[in-house]
Amino acid sequence: MAVGKDPARVDAVDKVTGLALYPADRVPDNALHAVVVFTNQPHARLVSIDLSKVVASPGVVTVVTAADVPVNEYGLTLFDQPVFIGLNDTGRSSVPCDISRWEADHLAVVVAESLSEARRASALIDTEWEPLPMASDVASAKTDEVLVHPGSSTNTYHTLQIRKGDAAQGMEAADIVIEGTYELPHQEHAYLQVEAATAWIDEQDRVTVETSGQWVHEDREQIAHALALDEEEVRVRYAAIGGAFGGKEDMSLQIVMAVTAHKLHALGINRPVHCGWSREESIVGHHKRHRATVTARLGSTSDGVITAVEADVWLDAGAYNYTSNKVLGNLHLSVAGAYNVPNARIDSRAIYTHSVPGGAFRGFGGPQGAFVAESQMNKLASKLGMDPMELRQRNALTDLSDGITQSGLPEGVGVTRVIDACVERVPPSEDLPNHPPFAPIASLPAETTQLRQGRGYAVGMKNVGFSFGFPEACEADVVFHGDVDDERPSRVELFHSAAEVGQGVHTALTQMVADAVGLDFECVEGSFSDTSTGGDSGSASASRLTFMAGNSVLGAVEEAEKTWADGARPAAGHFRYKPPATEALDPVTGEGQPNFCYGYMAQAVELTVDIGTGHIRVDRVVSVHDVGRAIHPQMLRGQIEGAIAQAHGYTLSEQLVVENGRIQNPRLSQYLIPGIGDVPGQVDCVILEGADPLGPWGARGVSEMPYITYAPAVTAALHDATGVWINKFPLTPSLVLEHLASVDS
Amino acid sequence: MKYVAPSSVEEATSLLSSSPSAQVFAGATDVVPQLRSGRTAPEVLVDLKKIKELVEVNSDGDKWTVGAATPTAYLTEDESFSHEFPGLSEAAGLIGSDQIQNRSSLGGNLCNASPAADSVPAMVVNGVRAVVAGPNGTRVLDVSEVVTGPGQTTLDDDEFIVEFEIDKMPNRSGDAYLRMTPRTEMDIAVVGAGARVTLADDGSIEQAVLALGAVAPTVVRIPDAEQALLGSTADEETLNAVAAAASAACNPIDDKRGTVEYRKQVAGVLAKRAVVIAIERAEQRNGSN
Question: Which of A46, A72, A249, A427 is a Cys-bridge partner for A91, taking CB atoms 3.0 to 4.6 Å apart?
Answer without folding.
Answer: A72
